[in-house]
Amino acid sequence: MTSQLTEKEIDRIIEMAWEDRTPFEAILFQFGIQEKEVIELMRKEMKASSFKMWRKRTNGRKTKHAHLRSDSVNRFHCSLQRVISMNKISKRR
Predict the structure, then answer these.
(1) Strand locations in the chain, DSSP E?
(2) Residue 93: count of CB within 10 angstroms of its CB
(3) Which residue has the higher pLDDT, 3 or 44?
(4) Which of 28, 39, 30, 33 is nearest to 3 (CA)?
(5) Which pLDDT does position 39 carry in this prediction?
(6) Cα–Cα distance for residue pair 31/28, rounded to 1 Å
(7) What distance lies between CA 92 and its chain's CA centroid?
(8) What is the rounded distance in angstroms from the CA atom of residue 53 to the CA atom of residue 39?
(9) What is the C-alpha separation between 64 and 66, in angstroms, rounded?
(10) What pLDDT is attached to residue 42?
(11) What is the DSSP letter of 84?
């Protein structure tokens, strides 16, 4: 699946994966790729030291997995972030 992604989509997936508060489920919803595929993509696209730092930071983090989050959090993105729907990212003003 990741071989069918454009460079722009890959950049966005990396950006979303790097964000602490964006769960892997949001990437699955928006791009249709599982957590395992995101990890493979990050390993391929990042320097080894950056990948290791990212994995250490995200491993087991509650905010990266929707099922570990508090039930009071019912959104994929920060309330201050502009609306993201499917693969369309709203333009910033």
Answers:
(1) 84-85, 88-89
(2) 4
(3) 44
(4) 33
(5) 93
(6) 5
(7) 19
(8) 13
(9) 7
(10) 93
(11) E
Instruction: Express each pLDDT in 44-71 by its tens digit.
Output: 999 999 999 989 888 866 666 555 555 5
Cβ–Cβ < 8 Å for 24, 64:
yes
Let me know: does 25 contact 3? Beta carbons within 8 Å: no
The sign of the torsion formed by the CA atoms of 12, 17, 22, 25 equals: positive
User: Rg of the chain's alpha carbons, rounded to an integer?
Assistant: 13
What whole-number distance in Å separates Cα of residue 31 and Cα of residue 20?
A: 18
CA distance 89 to 22: 14
Residue type, 8: K
End-to-end CA separation in angstroms for the chain: 32
